[in-house]
Design a protein that fits this description.
Low-confidence stretches of chain A: none
Oligomer: homodimer
Number of helices of chain A: 11
Strand content of chain A: 15-25%
Largest interface: A-B, 35 and 35 residues
Largest sheet of chain A: 9 strands, mixed
Mean pLDDT of chain A: 94
CATH class of chain A: Alpha Beta
Helix content of chain A: 25-40%
Number of domains of chain A: 1
CATH architecture of chain A: 3-Layer(aba) Sandwich
Order of helices and strands of chain A: EEEHEHEEEEHEHHEHHEEEHHHH
Strand order of the largest sheet of chain A: 5-4-1-8-9-10-11-12-13
Radius of gyration of chain A: 18 Å
CATH topology of chain A: UDP-N-acetylmuramoyl-L-alanine:D-glutamate ligase
């Protein structure tokens, strides 16, 4: 089955202690769509200006991502510039130019409204609502969010939580949203707000998955020696997760499918941070994914199953 | 097989944001010995003053811990007092009175020198050396340590690393010892210093196990809702780990046995922090341990093994 991915498309300037690159392909839609495309077909919804390089469009199309939902309008593409500190864990936004993204109204082209899986990438909750308003009973809706929306558009976000099956956010955002220091308590509180499933990302410490009936899964992080650019890690995580779910659809989403989806999201994110922009994903193969997935299995296993 | 446990025995005063208790049974030997005693027989080595309550000695003996190595000398027992901050993650030592512990010279009683498994609890590296000097070819030696020894007795600690099979320390200590921010690089560097195996504890984020040939295991932390007293978490972790290893001895220690030992260490630590001092361990049953171990299995598993 297909997954619909909506979010931002950007040209990023990224500075790390070691390197700086300008006008890189970025934005939550791009990272998430490309990650999901390793598992299933993707319907992309986003907006770019007429300065958006044709090569990027060609690349997305080469990933068999449907671009009927890509609006190309007069003006400049959204630009973001950020700098990572020495440990690559802290990031400062240096500049944001919304440009054409400011007037983005995600309009679904015909056929998209019945896409069974929906990933609402990290954008303003009202845009996420607007997409859901156009959908016809999707099977599973995942929303990503960030501190900006928790702080500035809390009401809209809370209303969104009643409309989604899964929320993805990081540990500091879960604490910010609930005022709870214990992630276990924060998770229970967020699930009470609506989503049956919740993923709390913990960066280098992995991710936690919470579900109904106290179901719980703890996923370790892949032990990377070298991180070159953390940009898009959360988006590739969400994209890989959603892509696997859609690909595995057997009529319903089970907690066991979700466990594996969280691992595959982690696998995709672990590749993504190995290079700037989407560079690592460009050369990634299904065999690479399978190999790292098996490494995850080995590193998490502590009892050889009885035969 | 048995495990020899050496370390401190203390009467602790512990203050959390909620409660304060004085003269609690504590010290690395007590926590580690009691945790290990759920899995195997323990030879304890430690020192107390003649003020040490008989009830504590009776309790240790009731756990079938051999106390031939317990020195009871005139004077006062080691006292430690600490306070935990609001999130229970930061701790301040309020006072230390070494008392009889200052003149502690761990002397092994006859028979102890052939104990196959050795856990050198968190004490001055020279005392750890002194124990090893008396041992006859132990099968597996584990050393615990802390920031104090890394900073103040670095040479003695580095020399100890050439004499042990496994080192246990926490993430900040691994970074402090090596100057590496990446735990993967820090682990490689520490293993180069001697120990074939290394455990890096990450508090609420679990623990990492490293071994020869890039063997790696990532253990999640048990999702506790309420932590009452983190004192002794590291010691019960080490004790549970060492106890399981000794109990499972089949002639050699394998990486698979170590994986399970790390999980059982985490299980023991997760119980210990549920109450002050060793209170939770006093009521703990093998069935409790088995139940939580199965919870760990479920929360870490992401692919139902093919039958």
């Amino acid at each position: 089955m297909s997954v619909l991915v909506v979010g931002s498309i950007a040209l990023d300037t990224v500075k790390t202690p070691v390197e700086e690159h300008t006008d890189l392909l970025g934005g939550s839609t791009c990272y998430a769509s490309v990650a999901a495309s390793f598992f299933t077909t993707v319907n992309l919804v986003g907006i770019v200006g007429d300065d958006f390089p044709t090569e990027h469009i060609d690349y997305l199309r080469s990933r068999k991502i449907d671009l009927a939902g890509l609006q190309i309008v007069p003006g400049k593409t959204f630009r973001w510039s950020g700098e990572y500190m020495w440990d690559l864990n802290t990031r400062e936004t240096r500049s944001i130019a919304l440009n054409v993204f400011e007037s983005f109204e995600p309009k679904l082209p015909g056929g998209y409204e019945r896409t069974p899986y929906v990933l609402l990438g990290n954008i303003h909750p009202n845009l996420q609502h607007h997409v859901l308003d156009q959908m016809k009973r999707p099977r599973f809706v995942i929303a990503d969010t960030m501190d900006l929306w928790i702080n500035n558009t809390r009401e809209e976000l809370l209303r969104l939580l009643t409309r989604v099956d899964m929320l993805i956010l990081n540990d500091s955002e879960a604490r910010m949203l609930t005022g709870q220091t214990s992630l276990i308590k924060a998770a229970a509180q967020i699930r009470d707000l609506g989503p049956a499933y919740l993923v709390i990302k913990k960066g280098e410490h992995g991710a936690l998955l919470f579900g109904p009936e106290a179901q719980f899964f703890s996923c370790g992080a892949y032990p990377l020696e070298e991180i070159h650019d953390p940009t898009g890690a959360g988006d590739t995580f969400a994209g890989g997760l959603a892509g696997h779910l859609a690909a595995q659809d057997h009529g319903s989403v089970t907690f066991d499918t979700l466990r594996k989806a969280v691992v595959l999201g982690s696998v995709m994110a672990s590749f993504n941070v190995e290079a700037f922009s989407l560079e690592r994903l460009r050369t990634l193969t299904p065999a690479d994914i399978e190999e790292r997935y098996q490494t995850f299995r080995r590193m998490s296993q502590f009892e050889v199953p009885a035969l």
